[in-house]
Amino acid sequence: MASPARAVSARAAIPYIYRFIITTLEPLFAVNGAMLSFFWPATYLHTMTRHSQTFSAPTTFLYTELGGAWLYFAFVEAVVLRMFDDLGLWRVLCMGMILSDLAYCHSCAQAVGGWGAWVVLSDWTVEDWFVFWGTAPFLLVRVLIVLGVGIRQNGGAVKRE
User: Which residue range or ranges hold the DUF7704 domain (predicted)?
Assistant: First the structure.
């Protein structure tokens, strides 16, 4: 009979700062984004589009969808990643989140007229900087976790039951 698989402890392998950013800071940002999209969708739209688009009430369902996605992120990060001390699970979930991050980053560029407009930093508004700094550090930490950068290779093993 094969011996039970051994999971590498995420707590032992992932630096505290990475875990703090992913399981504490980002869920707060995600809940904030959800509340903004649920209760103030026009403000969200203006923030993302440099005030170039007008909010239309019939599109409210899209903001509800977006808020739901952010609540899912917050739940996975604040609850699931704390419940399961498994580096492999962390990496798989971070890979999925990176897919969402890539779509979100592309949507940020679309919101201001495309990548050509987005890369002109001199045109950035305070909101653009907030969106960037409210996204980039979290995305970076996920990429570092997936790539194994800063991950302790001799992290303790935890027996799976």
Answer: 13-149
